[in-house]
Amino acid sequence: MNIYVDCIGISKKALRASFGIYRYVYNLFTGIKRDNSINLNFKIIIIKNDIDSYNFLLDDKRFDIITIDKDIKDNFTYFNVLKNDLSSLIDRESIVFFPRGYFLCNIPNKKILIVHDIIPYYFWKNNRNLKSLFIWNKIKRSINKSDKVIFISSNTFLSILNLYKDKEIFNKVDILYNGVELDNFIYLEKERETKPYFLTFYSKYPHKGYDKVIKAFIKYRENGGKNHLYVIGAKEDGLDPVNNIKYLRYINDIELHKLYRDCSGFISLSQIEGFGYPVIEAAFWGVPVILSSIPVYYETMFYYENSFFTSPYDIDKLSECLFYVENNFKIVNFKKAINEKYSLSFLAKRFYKVVSKI
User: Cα-Cα-Cα-Cα dihedral of 160, 6, 31, 299, to 10°?
Assistant: First the structure.
């Protein structure tokens, strides 16, 4: 069975949003590469400049890389390429797979769509952002035209269903969590040395709750809290000695997992998420995770005994939660549970099963 995959503009060097989609694609294809029983042939369509992101597939005959010699600078350029170039590359008998969450090409082929979250709707509702409304409408139309729709969490599906108001969607839905592969970092365990800092990620997007994390942490320190705060992905490296905050602009995967391993707690105060990959990574190391009480975090972390839920809107509650975690710190072993539920092998086999139903 041939499957064309629209990976135009999706690469490891893309913007943060597109990089998250690339991580899903990378994990899925890596899982498939390791399973010779999966009898699928993929034709990956990318722009020429992104070839380095897909070199890991070149040694597997089931993957064929097709390049388009164009530069994708924004969504509208992508739509034009998709409309004018992609359709001409696809044979009419094959399935077409769209990992981006939406598409704009009128082709008769059977289509698989992955929906990651409803963040475009959130931006439209809260900011009346026309670009977000445009993308949100594309998501809805793409769902209509798809033969199979994959959601990366049950919460994402239920959120779409609540807005979509079309029960027919049940007939073409599957839930496939993103895969994680963290055993490559287990060797770091022997050097574990818990240090007095909380860990969080910087984000300019309001729904991530970064500003509230900073305010709650400052209040926690003013009231006698002892831990520091490390912020990953900041605009630049730096130190705020007054508030005991360290900013880290860029770190590689090994350094990131060392930070997870040694922290006294990981904080994510998002108001909306599709899956929450960093939370899974932190839980792999058994450290406390301080989370906003949103449905997707209950879905993925409910059985993790070292998770602490708090309101994403209440700074006082988060500050109190930080005190509690500081005074009741412990490490648990959750590696086996994460490897079983989110393994790349499980993701690949589930995808194969989904495709076989079409």
Answer: -10
